[in-house]
Amino acid sequence: MSEKTKTIMLCCAAGMSTSMLVTRMQKAASEKGIDAKIFACPAAEVDEKLEQENINSILLGPQVRYLLDNIKKKVADKPIKVDVIDMQAYGMMNGAKVLEQGLKLSN
Fold first, then answer.
1. pTM
2. Active site residue: 10, 12, 21, 80, which one?
3. What number does CATH give the domain 6-106?
């Protein structure tokens, strides 16, 4: 991966509900020629992923929005932006819109 690669982590309760969204985001990135690494992880693995990955932005599934402040504190000393996935885009599994949200955060 190049330095231009954007790494977006999606975080949800168990990592399952966001996996389909990740697939759609990857497809949207590919169609737009965007170099992005997108993956999902359960909330319980956030600390581990922060150690292993060079993450640019973290998007939380609406079901774990209560973790927003906690995760923002964990990354306060890192150049990582955190937000909650737009609920409508999440519900519609709109990969392109969620990709756009993650890229805006990471710029």
1. 0.93
2. 12
3. 3.40.50.2300
